[in-house]
Specification:
Helix content is about 75%, strand content about 0%. The chain is built from 23 helices and no strands.
Length: about 450
Amino acid sequence: MMKNKKRNVFSVIAALLFMLISGFQVFAAEATAEIQTPTGFYAVLVIVPLIVILTLLFLKVDMLAAGFVGGTLAMLIGGIGLAQANEQFLSTIPGMLSITVPIINSAIAMAVFKSGGYTAALALVRRKIGNKGEYMAAFIVILQAAATYMSGIGGGSAMVIAPLAFAAVGAIPELIAAMSIATAVSFTTSPASLESGIVSKLSGIPVADYVAEMRIFTLIFVVLSVILGFYGAKKRKVVFKGEENSEFANLNNGQLFKITIPAIFMLAAVILGPFVNKAIGFGLINPLVYTVVTVALIYVCTKFNLNESMEAVVDGSTYILTRLFAVGIFLSFINIIGDTGAFQVIASLAEAAPAALVVPAAVLAGILVGIPAGAYVGSILGLVLPVAVSLNFSPVALGFVAMGVGLGSQLSFVNITMQALSAGFQIPIIQVVKGNGKWVGMAMALLLVIAFFLG
């Protein structure tokens, strides 16, 4: 308990130090010119609500409760009336819910999940590679990364894939760590994720542009994760265990491949679509087209009938819509704090920061906040990313910060992906955290090095 408290205090201090050397701005750039920078004791006072929110998040208080407390305190400090607060509330939530493409992509990917595409792919590969557990482990990491990248939901992917992985090769520490790293870099740079939507909304960068800029870095970390999964299984001389999934045991290889076709098409559309569109000179592979085609493929290639295929898409939107709504409420409280001039106070100190260290400092802050408060990756980005936005970080630098938060969350006891891995591999979550420590820590170190040279 004492160690956790010390870690939380250290994380609060680190995050605040970063804010103090960087700068902070939320959503509308034009608001900066209208708000006067507070001075004297009042300049210190207006930062207090941010400290309160960070502290509450680290203490595992629900993000909306933390935001409400901080926002209310900001209203009292800044003399902000209910009418002004209500205006922020009613404008911020629709702004978050307008992030259409990630909502669509996430809904379609979840429909592919439900139709059995990923489970069928795992069963098919298991048949093809024989008793080579290391190749199966590598494919499991690829599948986890692909599923997360398409859906934008790391926890949802792990809930499906982790039990299948445990049944196939058992609880390999390196494999679990590899799945965690691949998940973190995938959901923070996915065209379907809440996190990419928040980056887009806070920075004004289109989701497609952000995703395109980050794709090479996502691929680097995924490849390293695949190698790690392979290495772990090879070192431990893992062989297949358990029985094949009963749902697919009686299907031949051709039938299994048919079920995976919607997943293959969706992944190709998300990753290769922009390149195809550029090559032919117009947007042939757009959200409308690949939505219709994927739903049609689910109907044709899986056991789902047309009604079930459509319902799966609608049901698949529930996760991201719920979280966009929650983050919209949270950010409305952050914007209220912005109305007090708190962000201008912090931004006025940005010039004191050495330019070469600003991006790594932002990444480190994201990592340190993500570890204790990893259940709220979206809200953490709402606190950390505006610092980077105020300094005109490039899309790549913003992505590094988002990745830092994501990697930090993979050492968090409250993170959904971590909980899913714990349940799926049937080991205590403390064992998952300990096993991730070495490998996720190395991934963090690599990210900091990359951020220093390329940020």
